[in-house]
Amino acid sequence: QVQVVESGGGLVQPGGSLRLSCEASVSIFRLYTMAWYRQAPGKQRELVAQIAPSGSTYYADSVKGRFTISRVNAKNTVNLQMNTLRPEDTAAYYCNVPAERAWGQGTQVTVSS
């Protein structure tokens, strides 16, 4: 069973930055597409960013230019650098391995003054 573990959430003021990390226990990490989702209270879970094995990326319109997804294959890790955070970015953030239908437990990000 694939284990997915996120870290790095917390409380930050508007305009601040946070970096989320996710480690997945898959055998050949470099072959997997990895994704970050988020879910705010009362809302559906939404795709935030995704990175393919080639390194090509996808971002939701709401985070383009502010968030950056990256991967470190040697460490089975995918990161999400979040800059210029807004109150509407407040949500639980989940790491996902689409091919394995595996999810992490989520990490809370709260943007508030």
Concise structural overview:
0% of the residues lie in helices and 49% in strands. The chain is built from no helices and eleven strands. Strands 2, 4, 5, 6, 9, 10 and 11 form a seven-stranded mixed sheet that branches.
Explain what you see.
This protein is mainly beta. Helices cover 0% and strands 49% of the residues. Strands 2, 4, 5, 6, 9, 10 and 11 form a seven-stranded mixed sheet that branches. The termini are far apart. The mean pLDDT is 96. It is globular, with a radius of gyration of 13 Å. The chain contains no helices and eleven strands.
Could you outline the blueprint of secondary structure elements for this entry?
Elements: E1 4-7, E2 10-12, E3 18-24, E4 34-39, E5 46-51, E6 57-59, E7 67-72, E8 77-82, E9 91-97, E10 102-103, E11 107-111
Distance between the termini: 40 Å
As a whole number of angstroms, the C-alpha radius of gyration is: 13 Å
Number of strands: 11
Helices and strands, in order, run as EEEEEEEEEEE
SS class? mainly beta
User: Main β-sheet, in a few words?
Assistant: 7 strands, mixed
Estimated share of beta-strand residues: over 45%
Features:
mainly beta, 113 residues, globular, 4-stranded antiparallel sheet, 7-stranded mixed sheet, 11 strands
